[in-house]
Every structure is written in structure tokens, then in C-alpha cells.
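Give me C-alpha cells for this 343-residue protein.
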Amino acid sequence: MGTPGVDVYAGCNIDYKGKDVTPAVFEAVLKGDASAVAGKGNGKVLKSSTNSRVFVNFVDHGGVGIVAFPSEIYHATDLIATLDAMHTTGMYKELVFYLEACESGSMFQDLKPDINIYATTASNAAESSWGTYCGADAMVDGKNINSCLGDLYSVNWMEDSDVSMGKNWTLAEQFNKVVKLTDKSHVIEFGTKTMKTEFIDAFQGDYNSAGRGAAMVEEGTFKPKAAISMKSPDAEIASAYTRFMEGSEAAGLELVAGVQARIAAKKTFQKITATVMAGSNAILAQPARVDMQCHKTAYLAYKAQCGDFTSQTMPFSATLAALCAHTSGDARPIAAAITEACA
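Here you go.
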């Protein structure tokens, strides 16, 4: 049962892994700053120029205005500043950025439309992204790995590339197909949209029929192999539940801890909200546009007083965005409420 296992690491030289995968290293690689990664990984950075086409694919957990690295959080203000710096120093001719994360649409709200960067995201700024090939579909060599094998948006564009590359199909064609295929969230586009007429091969690599994986999308259609999907934030708890039901006591403890952490996070942010709003229990709507400077200040206050975001607290980054709208961009009452809640 399931797809035969393949060692995806065989023959693959990983530039950075483990503790070296940090926002600082990510920024240094994009900016071509070799001195900033001395002693980390293999030290490779971009050596691109104003004649280069650059493709960036980022996949991890996320929240409003943030994406996760293995042990750190990266804020939208820092990502936009890095992309602006790349433009200023001539690190690319055109850059395409695909981002898979919950609320990933919030990361590019401040991306300039005229610096030759075209970005698409797995979801809008107020919804989860989705894992796919989950549950009974997560079979490898007859064994269920009790997780999800991929993410819906990412699987869709990669499977589309399997059948599209080498045929002069454009970024616009891929975007339109991925929008239709990703039916659990809203795929959004940002930046220099005139770049959509470019061919995907120019960014994702030269077409090579010998090295191309087996496509799961039928050529000429928009319908991939049906697969079980779930919201990305739920995958961790769902995995623990499945393993617990199969008899793992350790998974049971993991499940309990995950549920308790989720409940505790909700209570903490309810307390922060009530303090900022002088006891009101009104439900705040997420603003159409996030005040990212206020949000970052509030996030840093939370990190300092409560510890950094985890997989259970990241969804509440949206609360900070809503509170910033409520205070008209004044982060001070939010920081004070955070200090009180986590004291």
C-alpha cells in the first residue's frame, strides 16, 4: 500500500540544516553576504546579479505577519526589508517568491509593485493553509507516517510543474491552475504582476525529462489525484491522536500537552485582549491591512515576556494585528497588557 519510499536526500547536498537554518542566515544568503554565514553550513550565498532570475520557495508554519524557522520567528517587516535591499544592490533581474504558510498573504502586503518581484502565497492574510496527502493517504512503503506528506498549495504547483516545464507555460498559467486546485484556501498574488508572462522554466530550472518526477496531475486537466487534506495547524495534534489510538503512550502525552498548550494560549490572548479593551469581550475583526510596525513591536514584547511563538500560539498573531487596529497603531497598551498577562 502507498507509494514506494524514495530517499530524497540521496545525492542532495544540503547547504544549511538544523541550527543553521535561521532568519539571519536566510537574509545573508539572499543578500549574498558570505561574511555573515562564516562557520555556518557550507557558507554558500547567492552570487546573482542584475542579469539573474531568482526563485525562492519557502515552506513552514505561519501566522499574521510572521513565518516560522525551526527555532525562530521571522517578521514580515524583515522579509520586505530584505527584498528591498536585494533590489537596491542589484541581486536580481526578476525574482519569484512562492510562500507556503498559514496567513501567508499577510507577509507581502507591503511588497512594492515596481521592483520586479512577483510573489504568490498559499492563503490570504486571514486563513490557514492546508496539508494534503494526510491520514490514509500518508502511506509510504505500506506504512502510515501519521502526518501529511505535503501542503496543498505546494503540492499543486509542484505537480503542475511536473507537466508544465519545457512547454513554455507561464507564471500566469501556473497561478491560475493552482488557484483552482487549491480549493481549501485562497491563493493570492502580489508585486510586479506584469512578470506573469514569463515562463516558469526561467525560474524553476531547466526542463530535464530524465530527472523529472512522475506527475500526479493529468496533463490538460486541473484535477489532481484526490487526497485527504487538513488545516496545517491541526496536523501536529492529529498526528499525536492517530499514534495514540494505535497504542503509543508517548503520543498520548504529546496529544494532551498539545491540547493544553492550545487552551492556555487562547486564555492568555483573551486576557491580553480584555486588558487592552478595558474589560470588553467584543470580538475584534482582523484589519484588512495590518500595521506591521505596531505588530512587530507587540510581537517582540510578547517574545520578551511570554517566550517566542510556538505552533500553538502562532495563530494568535492575528490577535496582535487586531489590537493594533484597535489602538490605532499604538503598541504601548498592548505591550503593557502582555506584561501583565505573562507576569
